[in-house]
Design a protein that fits this description.
This protein is α/β, with parallel strands linked by helices. It has a single domain, classed as 3-Layer(aba) Sandwich (Carbamate kinase), CATH 3.40.1160. Strand 4 and strand 5 form a beta hairpin. The longest helix is centred in the N-terminal third of the chain and has 27 residues. It is globular, with a radius of gyration of 17 Å. The C terminus is likely disordered. The site of adenosine-5'-triphosphate has 23 residues, from helix 1 and helix 9.
Length: about 280
């Protein structure tokens, strides 16, 4: 299985409020549909919530969870906004020939103190097996400790990415950048402590920005890439096993980096309701 995440910073204006960027959604949908049409039947798409998620979490005061009636209204409002963005993404994919089906994390995921505790991955697997392109997204999710909490697309990627062939995170930068703005080509356990100082939290991002993203990827024993979605040809190159400008994250060294894209490769059956580690 391959996991592709399109960042909310790509498809929305994160400095705005519920502000989509339709031409970017269209460009990305074209690129993803083209990968799907080339035979990637074991592809799961995840997209960020951008200004349909982070801005509403801040507006409704949901950063510490959901306790009162006003916050419950806020939770519902934020979830509805995330679904609205996902509907735009899915409609663009369908228009470009990919049978995309949006699966709302608020329905299939439960959190326990901010982390995924239950995930009905069977539905994702069923859609894959039936030849659809499942689409998940950053969303609100019920939390048994906090009442409710944002579940980032990055956390969903990290959960689904265990055992995947690779994970590709497409965002609005060329990769992880050092202080001089140069792309750091490789992150692994050995250089992570040194690189960690470059990872900043991002304004308008309640789930940790680049720091949160790399933290999720380092906890995964799966090859992953950070790529600029403004250059869809780079996404395509990685899916075709060709080199592209990006940051490669290889937590446990090269043993997890040898896999290449095989169109139509057999699908891994996803584990169901795996408790969070
Ligand atoms: N060292 C770094 N290298 C590159 N980007 C960094 C770095 N530190 C912080 N950032 C910021 O991280 C941002 C990307 O993270 P962010 O979580 O906003 O993206 P996203 O995944 O596209 O959005 P979303 O979380 O809504 O899906 C970049 O726009 C950049 O401003
Ligand atoms: Mg983020």
């Amino acid at each position: 299985m391959k996991i592709l995440k399109i960042g909310g910073s790509v498809i929305t204006d994160k400095s705005g409020y519920r502000k989509a960027i339709p031409e970017r959604i269209e460009k990305i949908a074209k690129a993803v549909a083209s990968i799907w049409k080339k035979g990637a039947r074991d592809l799961v798409l995840v997209h960020g919530a951008g200004s349909f998620g982070h801005a509403l979490v801040i507006k409704h005061g949901l950063k510490d969870g959901v306790k009162n009636t006003a916050q419950k209204l806020g939770y519902a409002d934020a979830h509805a906004a995330c679904c609205e963005l996902s509907s735009m993404v899915v409609c663009a994919l369908i228009a470009n020939g990919a049978p995309a089906v949006s699966i709302p994390p608020a329905i299939v995921i439960s959190l326990k103190d901010k982390r995924i505790y239950r995930f009905d991955t069977k539905i994702v697997n069923d859609y894959l097996q039936s030849g659809y392109l499942p689409v998940l997204f950053g969303d609100m999710a019920p939390d048994s400790v906090l009442g409710g909490y944002p579940c980032s697309g990055d956390q969903i990627v990290a959960y689904l990415g265990k055992g995947a062939d690779f994970v590709l995170l497409a965002t609005n930068v060329d990769g992880v950048l050092d202080d001089a703005g140069k792309v750091i080509p490789l992150i692994c356990r050995e250089n992570f402590p040194e690189i960690s100082k470059h990872l900043k939290e991002t304004p308008n991002d309640v789930t940790g920005g680049m720091r949160g993203k790399i933290g999720e990827l380092m906890a995964l024993d799966t090859l992953s890439y950070i790529v600029n979605a403004g250059h869809p040809e780079r996404i395509d190159a990685i899916f075709s096993g060709k080199p592209a400008l990006c940051t490669k994250v290889v937590p446990n060294g090269e043993k997890s980096s040898g896999r290449t894209f095989m169109p139509g490769a057999s699908m891994r059956i996803l584990r169901q309701s795996r408790p969070a580690e």
